[in-house]
Write a structure and sequence with these properties.
Layout lengths: L1 E3 L8 H8 L4 E5 L5 E2 L14 E5 L3 E10 L5 H4 L4 E8 L4 E6 L8 E9 L2 E8 L3
Parallel strand pairs: 7-9
Antiparallel strand pairs: 1-4, 2-3, 2-4, 5-6, 5-8, 6-7, 8-9
Length: 129
Amino acid sequence: MQEELVSRSDGALAHVEGLRHGVLRFQRCTSCARAQTLARYACSGCGKSTLVWEDSNAQGNVVATTTVTRAPSEAFAALAPYVLVIVELDEGARVMGHGAKGLRIGDRVAATYFAHGERTLLRFVALEG
């Protein structure tokens, strides 16, 4: 599903709302087809502003992992220690999220979602098989 980015002032709203509804979204450039995460005003590949939001299949491969033992703020202190991973989604974009303990680089994962305070956060878990 594609959703035109109607207002350039909405920033990450499409992404954040997607998480609330259990949908992982990313931007795709209609000029060069590059996929990217975060809300940007221009394509990180070609620089054009021809971006649309797409829903991901929410699966990919772990490309980096780390364990956070000291939370960056009080808002995340209750979660520490926690695993963060960078996942290259099947669509090509890379996204950072929480990860299940024991995930390794190269693992095939799927996105899940969890509430933390007022936020909905992303957590990746290993796919079976």
